[in-house]
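Recall the central idea of this unit: under ordinary conditions, the amino acid sequence of a chain determines the structure it adopts. In this exercise we apply that idea directly, starting from the sequence alone.
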Amino acid sequence: MRILGQPLFFLIVFGLLLPQLDVFMVDYIEILVPGIIAMTAMLGAMRSVGGEIGISFDHDQEIRAHILLPLTMASLALEKIIYGMFQGVFSGLAVLVLAVFLFPETFTLTVTSLVVLLIIFMATGIIFGAMGLGIGSYFKPPEIMFEVMFLITMPMMFLGATFYPVDMIKEISIVLYYFTFAIPLTYVSESIRVFIAPETAGLSLLACIIGLVVSILVFIPIGIWGFKERAIK
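Accordingly, the structure predicted from this sequence is:
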C-alpha cells in the first residue's frame, strides 16, 4: 500500500474523476499513466536505497559488519544498486497492473511490450537506486539526507515529462524544454509512453535509450563513489 497509495489516488482523481467533470480531456490518461508509472518506479528505488543507507550508516551496525566482509566496496555498493533495481521493477510493475485494471480499454499489453517495460523498469531502478545510494551516503544525518532527497525528487516529479510529453513544453518555454533533457526521469516517462501510448510519446525510442544509458553511466559511479567515501569515514 505504501507503493500504490499515491499513484492510486493520482489515477483515480486525474484519470477517472476530473475527465468526467470535463476538467481534463478523457484521453489525458494516456499521457498521465506512463508518467505516474515512471515516478513511482523512481521513488521506489531511490527512497528504498537512500533511506536504508542513510539510516544504516547513522544508527545500524549491520552496514558496518557488511563493510568488514571480504568484499570490495564497489561490490557492496553494486549490491545496494541491484536492490534498488528490484524495487524499481516491483514499483513500476505494480502501477502498470493497476493502470491496466482501471483502464482496460485504454491500455493493452503484448508479451513483447511487457518484456521491454520490465527492462525499462530495471534501468529505472539502477539509475535511481544509484542516485539514492549517492545521496544516502554523502548527506548526513538522515534528517538532512531526506530533505536533500525531497529537494531533488520534487523537480524531477513535476518536470520530468511526468504530466506531459516533453515536446509539448517547447512552445511554452525553450529553456524549460532543454532543462527537461537533463532530468533522467524524462527518458523513463517517454520510453514507457512509447510502448503503452505511442501516439503521445514526445521522444523517439532511440533518444530514450540514449538518455537511459547515459544516466546509468553517470549515476552508478557517483553512487559507488559516495558509498566508498562514507564507508571509509
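The first helix runs from residue 5 to 20.
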